[in-house]
């Protein structure tokens, strides 16, 4: 913006006009220069006339009343902003992004009375610029206080193991829901989009002992997994062998039953023939039995009361049968 005094001096040097006309020209040029403004692409403009809200304008070029009658406040409604707790990222632009004492923010007490260092991020977006600017004093600081209070409440209901290991997702979801409710109740004009836990560690003096406990738990889980693997290999194999033995036993049972039934049927048939002709059947059984027993004997001896000496009977081998006439 050009200085009015400079414009006045230039005009008096160039044009031989009266001071009133020159002053009026300067005021017109200055007012025209102050009547236009531009809102960035990610923001909206809140127009105040004599300090009172009158309008909300989108991004782009707009006009206003000059000389301080209208003032415009730029609000980044389309930009995702974040609050960092327990740590600080260099180069931040949001004045509310970093707390006054990050070390104190991240120090918390868990439900099992252990200490934990919790770092987290809250991402939010301004959705109602009027409420954000006029309904709450310091809305960014208020949102920080709400987020810290909710996180301490949720962490205080859980053990240190849950916070560091298995309970991170549940903590993020609980803090997000609770922070949204409080931001809406207090009419901050913001929408909380995400809560993300960063580093969660025990205090520095007890970190070595805590790491030892974690390693022991990991070794325990590893041994359990190995045992489960061996169990999963041994049990199916044992079940398969048991099924195989059961099937073999059932097969042997059926075999013995069939053989016994066959022998019983054969005996019944022989008995029927014996009843019809006992002598013939007895002789036939005797001869069949000798035909089965004698070929298995190594040496056969015939004993007869009429014979005074024992005469060996040679086995009827294949060679003797071939030599016989």
From TrEMBL:
<keyword id="KW-0378">Hydrolase</keyword>
<protein>
    <recommendedName>
        <fullName>Protein HflK</fullName>
    </recommendedName>
</protein>
<dbReference type="InterPro" id="IPR036013">
    <property type="entry name" value="Band_7/SPFH_dom_sf"/>
</dbReference>
<comment type="similarity">
    <text>Belongs to the band 7/mec-2 family. HflK subfamily.</text>
</comment>
<dbReference type="InterPro" id="IPR010201">
    <property type="entry name" value="HflK"/>
</dbReference>
<dbReference type="InterPro" id="IPR001107">
    <property type="entry name" value="Band_7"/>
</dbReference>
<keyword id="KW-1133">Transmembrane helix</keyword>
<keyword id="KW-0472">Membrane</keyword>
<keyword id="KW-0812">Transmembrane</keyword>
<dbReference type="Pfam" id="PF01145">
    <property type="entry name" value="Band_7"/>
</dbReference>
<comment type="function">
    <text>HflC and HflK could encode or regulate a protease.</text>
</comment>
<feature type="domain" description="Band 7">
    <location>
        <begin position="34"/>
        <end position="214"/>
    </location>
</feature>
<dbReference type="GO" id="GO:0006508">
    <property type="term" value="P:proteolysis"/>
</dbReference>
<dbReference type="InterPro" id="IPR050710">
    <property type="entry name" value="Band7/mec-2_domain"/>
</dbReference>
<dbReference type="GO" id="GO:0008233">
    <property type="term" value="F:peptidase activity"/>
</dbReference>
<keyword id="KW-0645">Protease</keyword>
<comment type="subunit">
    <text>HflC and HflK may interact to form a multimeric complex.</text>
</comment>
């Amino acid at each position: 913006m050009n200085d009015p005094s400079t414009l006045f001096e230039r005009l008096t040097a160039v044009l031989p006009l009266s001071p009133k006309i020159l002053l009026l020209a300067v005021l017109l040029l200055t007012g025209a220069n102050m009547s236009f403004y531009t809102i960035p692409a990610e923001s909206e403009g809140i127009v105040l006339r004599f300090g009172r809200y009158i309008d909300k304008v989108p991004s782009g070029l707009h006009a206003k009343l000059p000389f301080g009658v209208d003032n415009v406040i730029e609000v980044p409604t389309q930009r995702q902003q974040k609050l960092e707790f327990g740590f600080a990222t260099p180069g931040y632009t949001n004045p509310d992004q970093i707390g006054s004492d990050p070390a104190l923010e991240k120090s918390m007490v868990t439900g099992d009375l252990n200490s934990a260092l919790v770092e987290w991020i809250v991402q939010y977006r301004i959705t109602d610029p009027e409420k954000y600017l006029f309904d709450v004093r310091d809305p960014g600081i208020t949102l920080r206080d709400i987020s810290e209070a909710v996180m301490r409440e949720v962490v205080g209901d859980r053990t240190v193991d849950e916070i560091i290991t298995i309970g991170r997702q549940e903590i993020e979801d609980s803090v997000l829901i609770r922070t949204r409710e409080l931001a809406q109740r207090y009419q901050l004009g913001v929408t909380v989009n995400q809560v993300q836990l960063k580093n969660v560690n025990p205090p520095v003096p007890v970190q070595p002992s805590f790491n030892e406990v974690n390693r022991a738990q990991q070794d325990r889980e590893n041994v359990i997994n190995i045992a489960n693997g061996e169990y999963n290999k041994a049990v199916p194999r044992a079940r398969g062998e048991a099924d195989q033995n059961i099937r073999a036993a059932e097969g042997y049972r059926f075999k013995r039953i069939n053989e016994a039934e066959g022998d019983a049927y054969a005996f019944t048939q022989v008995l029927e023939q014996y009843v019809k002709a006992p002598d013939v059947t007895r002789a036939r059984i005797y001869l069949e039995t000798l035909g089965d027993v004698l070929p298995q004997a190594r040496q056969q001896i015939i004993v007869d009361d009429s014979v005074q000496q024992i005469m060996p009977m040679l086995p009827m081998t294949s060679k003797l049968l071939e030599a016989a006439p």
